[in-house]
Amino acid sequence: MIAAASPAVGGAILGPEAIDVIGRLEQCLEVGEQLMAFARKEDGSVKMARTLLHASGHIRRTVQTLVQMHEAIHSVSRVDAFYRDVIALLEDVAREHPPAAQTILVRLPGLTAQRSL
Is residue 2 part of a domain? Predict the structure, then answer.
């Protein structure tokens, strides 16, 4: 479903207390599905229209949150991969031109701060 990466690891947000975010969202989906089932008659017709609408909205918001989390994790993974590539490039430059690599290393933190990376 959603690949785990920093800052989310195994579906948990790390902090003073780990919170199983993915597990909580899965519980939200289950509750929404239970409410939708409860709001329908056995033949599938609508028994409680308001409850059905609220449940479908609840599911939509939960799915939207899951998508946002996936996008954030994917974005972090892309930035991480970029920095791995930059480090590999700097290692190559350092072998051939140590002063150039040193200059890049000194200036890189300023560039990342300017770009908010």
Answer: no
